[in-house]
# Entry
Amino acid sequence: MIETLVQVKLVVRVPCAIIEHDGKVLAGQRSAELSFPLKWEFPGGKQEENETDEETLVREIREELNIEIQIVQKLPVTSKDQGWREIILVPFVCKMRSQEITLTEHEQIMWLEPDDLQSLDWTEADLGVIQSYYQYLSVKK
# Structure
């Protein structure tokens, strides 16, 4: 009998928050120690076993920014295949329920007008989220 080793691709589901406040959107710059160092992203993180997308997002935002959020709208999922793993971003438009942000993972945050989002150096997967957000805004108007 011949055995064949098949490499299994890691699939990582990552709910992320497009946090709106006073007409602006929050962007977070990744830590220099993380993958995609110093790239910009929408805050969020890896889903744990038996968590819903929404539970993951609330937990991750609490851990990363020390704030509570209200989820407003789920946007279309985007993905980025990196060969050895696939990142599936699950974006949600959110509002802040608390105001004092404390950074625990990001180098810095920035509040931007929606039209200025593309001025930053985003992770590739987050670029798809920006496009979904622009689509959401165009329908919302």
Notes: The helical segments are 53-65, 124-140. The beta strands are 10-21, 24-29, 40-41, 69-74, 78-81, 85-96, 108-112. The chain has a mean pLDDT of 92. The first helix runs from residue 53 to 65.
